[in-house]
Write a structure and sequence with these properties.
5-stranded parallel beta sheet, disordered N terminus, Ser_AcTrfase_N_sf, alpha/beta, 6-stranded mixed beta sheet
Length: 334
Amino acid sequence: MAACIDTTRTDTSQLSRNPNRSQSDDQAYNYVKFCRPPPVPCTPFSRNHTKTTNKPAVVDDFDQQNSLWRIMKEEARLDVEQEPILSSYYFTSILSQKSLERALANVLSIKLSNSSLPSTTLVDLFAGVLEESPEIIRAVVEDLKAVRERDPACVSFVHSFLNFKGFLACQAHRVAHKLWSQGRQVLALLIQNRVSEVFAVDIHPGAKMGHGILFDHATGLIVGETAVIGNNVSILHNVTLGGTGKACGDRHPKIGDGVLIGAGTCILGNIRIGDGAKIGAGSVVLKDVPPRTTAVGNPARLIGGKENPIKLDRIPSFTMDHTSFIADWSDYVI
């Protein structure tokens, strides 16, 4: 997985829809410059958390985690003022917690506990992993920003933190993957199982995942053991990143940076979905998809054809545009 470069976004006009763009041009184009998510807003929040078209001011990168935590606590206070009946819930979940790590450990432990696996056991496990893994918390912050920016149903950071199962499943996986990489496979598989039962999201703890991830709706998402998901990827519900048989080894898809995968898609086998590609809803993908192209159908085909596919000029995981390719794909009109 390529790490995103910490610079401001450059002009997207560098991208070309010209299918005859040379390979050397594509190699010279540094796609990861476009993979930095929007910064955390630091303007006051209205009580109804309504989104506005004005972009808020930014905060320094080194302070983003603390700034986001302060914003979430303020959002929680505003929610309690609006709905006092939730005061105990918000106090336990957010306002009484000393850090983002502790709050996340608390939420996950409550969500994933059951009668034989109490939250008191899980909270120590989650807190221990999160507090010793700053890279996970950096990814959590980027994931929260991704949900806030890309999902119009998200009214606040604290809303997604407490209620969005795609976000919570992603963070539980990050903990499980850390345990898996430490050789604690029994615990990692236990977390996978509980996430599958509670959130209907089944991600093998061996799967690798970047930051800035959006699992929109998330129900029915399946990710295999050797799958890799890059940075700033958006995936909708009922998506399978699976294998094609029972052979062991590296057998699952590799998803590049900035990819958008539509609902109901199956991507099968050890294939590569290139940076900035878009996969249309309901597609079955069995072969590599080149960067900045659109694949759709069963079996999936490239918009514009295999020889000269149309190149996307915007990052699909940021735009969340699922339909712009239709005019180039079909003249069917209802």
